[in-house]
From TrEMBL:
Keyword Thylakoid belongs to the record: no
Membrane topology: Multi-pass membrane protein
Transmembrane segments: 39-57, 69-96, 127-147, 159-182, 188-208
Name of the featured protein: TVP38/TMEM64 family membrane protein
Subcellular location field: Cell membrane
Top-rank taxon: Bacteria
Alphabetized InterPro entries for the sequence: TMEM64, VTT_dom
Residue ranges of domain VTT in the record: 62-179
Record's keyword terms, sorted: Cell membrane, Membrane, Transmembrane, Transmembrane helix
Similarity annotation: Belongs to the TVP38/TMEM64 family.
Amino acid sequence: MDVVSRRLKLIVALVLLAGAVVAAFTLPVPSPAELRNWAAGAGAVTALVFLAAYAVLTVAPIPRTVFNLAAGLLLGDVLGIVVAITATAVSGALGFGLARLVGRDLVARHLERKVVRAVDERLADGGILAVASLRLIPLVPFAPLGYCCGILSVRFRPYLIGTVLGSLPGTIAVVVLGDALTGSTPPALLACYGAFAVAGAVGLARIARGTANAGRIRQPATLDPVREEIVRAEPSQHMRRVSEE
């Protein structure tokens, strides 16, 4: 029964993954003119409809940049940032929950492998800082990182907080620089991406260094009880010899 259940989950996971990949390559990305017309027709519900579309579509590996740019174009700076970061949180939570629901059992047996266990421990121990650092690096895809955190041992609350904090700078930059929809990437946007990548790399380096230091500190600590037993045993042995004499 357990084998059948695992196979069923594997099939479901493969179908969902295939659907996400197909959606990423086949769903049309609306042009700025189409977005303007859609927003004008939607009226006051534009923000809600946009939030829902953003949150649902980016659960699949579809780049968030176009949605952030559209948020700035359609909703303005302040409302665009609020809607974009809210949709980011919802999308990240959905991707995490979906991966944990259907993928956790499938990879549980592989968590004992050295490389997988090392990545799992670094992410889990790093908590908010680890997730936020990875989210700051533009080259790390948004949706796949959520899947990875979902199937590994990362807890939901640190993951969600780290996702929001790490995604916030880039989201603000892209929403504010909504004029990048003209077709070229502004140098200021590239500079922001570079700064975020450096900040994320520094955060990951701190986590790696902290884990290494913790490992060096913990290792000799396991010998302390043995040393204490020897120290305690020496006076008692000495007293026993004196009493025998």
